[in-house]
Give the backbone structure.
Amino acid sequence: MTIIEALVDLQEVDGRIRELETELKDLPRRKALETARLSGVSADLQAAKANHEYAAKRVKSYEEDAKALREKIQQLKQTQMGLKTNKEYQDFSIQIDLVNHDLEATENNAIAAMDDLPGAQARIDDAQAKYDSEKGGVDAFCAEIDERIAKVKAELDEAMKERAEKAKAVNDPKFMLYYERLRTKRWPVVSALTHDGVCDGCHLVQPPSVGQLADANAKNGEAGKPQSIVACTMCGRILYRA
Ligand SMILES: [Zn+2]
């Protein structure tokens, strides 16, 4: 195997590693998006519950007021029974009427407030149903993502082992160093030099000297002689004659 062939082999594994790493970065993001969407639905449910709580508090408050007014009327009536004069009795009747009027208004308010409750409860039920159904979907989606993450990690471990083997096969430190340096900036690192003399990585037409070097390299490879690094004059990719 020539050094270029060994590099192309290594590059094939590195290509898979790159894809797996990209996916591994992307998967948690997709999970976070789904979870965020669910927390929006959850916020709707919380708001519906708060709204119901507020409506129920209003009802309770009017009911308490009505109870206090009824007790007040009871007291007034009891006091009224012990009164001696007609004038005092009539004064109390007027007071009792006034309180009765308040009571009626308060009871009407309580009834009106109670009318809000079924709607508020329906809003909770709707929000709860939506949350339950969304949560089921999101949980299943997240479980799938977790499974995929585990699978990608396992594949990545395998690929890294394979890479170590392939890297050993590139037994020329000069080539290896060049490849490793360029790998973070350019991908792929090793590109074909087309028959038109174009770098397949950046598509720049190479000077004839580059084509001659690439041809010589190919011949050296066939003859089992050492190969040299032929690089694109524009992007620096390692070029080989396809
Ligand atoms: Zn190039």
